[in-house]
Amino acid sequence: MSMFLGIDLGTGSCKAAVLDGEGRVCGAGQGTYPAGEGPRRWNEQPPEALLEGIVQASRQALMAARVSARQIEAVSVGGAMHSLLVLDGSERPLTGVITWADGRGAHQAGQYRNTPQGLALYQRTGCPVHGMYPLYKILWLRDEQPGVFAQAARYVTAKEYLLHALTGEWMVDYSIAAGHGSMNTHTLRWDAEALALAGLREEQFSPLAPPQYLLKLKDTPLVAQAGLLPGTPLVLGCSDAVNSSLGAGAVLPNRATLMVGTSGALRVVARQPILHPQGKNWCYAIDSTHWLVGGAINNGGVALDWLRGVFSRAGGAEMTFDAVAALAGEVPPGAGGVLCLPFFAGERSPNWNLNARGVFFGLTLEHGPAHLARALLEGVAFRFRSLAEMLAEVGCEPAEIRASGGFIHSPLWLEIMASVLNRQLFLPEWGETSSWGAAAWAMIGMGAVADLEAAGQLVKVNGRATPDPEQVPVYDHLYALYTRLYENLLPSFEAVARFQHSTGR
User: Which domain of life does the UniProt lineage start with (predicted)?
Assistant: First the structure.
């Protein structure tokens, strides 16, 4: 039987899955690498560490599936969006892999935010004006590191760097390029005006291609180390965001994917570009007939991890995520009136405010750690209600929501999310949706399944989370307070951000 290997090059780890021709998972693996690091607001990873991650993940998946490299009909690679690696004329890295979490481009993006030029750029590229996008990080390099900017011969993403190590080719799929800020989401070409904004040339970027584009693994050290065979077809594939939606079976227009991992996102697959008149949502091309439309948050699991770390340090012993969730379950819905605005890493959709900051509001002497834990879980859920309202504004209110990411392992968080949204959440059988989606592109590229929609139909649902009718009115009331609190704090967010920047925090 033919087998297909999917590799998901994420921000925190590399995951792999082997699927058979029916879409069943036969084996999985994971490779780890260091989280991003650097000076304040920087977030870079060593590129060679990412290559080591794929070796671990691929070998583990093949071993778990008990298949040889000869049984792999095709491979496909997915990758985290919005990364940037600068190479010189000899294709040597001039920077680390700058991740989506890097905040260096905030000032440069701020110069175009809420301007006619910025809105026009959004309408062409589908990328809201925000420092997360590589375009604004390149502007930062131009302004702050002119030596690096002058030497830059090629700008690539982590996925492109990996593909080159596997195939010897420079190529980028539409969905990865769409997250750069410089690809026209209508024409599927590099946008001349966006490139001119930063003084860039089209030849500094990889050729664009659809996800079904076929390459071949070359006889390279990485291919051998990953346990793969030269000559094996490699299907170009898509970003981790697209793959997550595909792996959740949410590629039909009436389905959405709600994902909470380190960050989070709510997205739908549309048949045409859909753009918000105020630039709130993003719109990333998948191919010439599909676009990924939605919004993302910076503070998903990373916010819970922050609170877990605070509790661990205060208690002198390491707390697990399950322990924090259990603590949250000790108090009733509404957390005793404590509200959390979980903007610990700034904000993306729908307001794209990097200066937003984390807040716990409503504390009294009667509140304790359990209230903070529950308020944080509820605050993240409120963020998704904001995203759902944003999608409704552009006519993308789904009939069904599929849930994915690490949060699906917490029954309490699932119940909170369902009750805040007042919607059922359906759980796919295989939780690692991005690696499943990557392997599905290998199937699509080789004709094992007809197309994106047919691949999505292979996904089975094996659970659901249902709103608690007693909790829904509680959360309706608190969400209104949460929204008003955010609006009232906007001037204070700006003031405290200026103070923090001035003091190097």
Answer: Bacteria
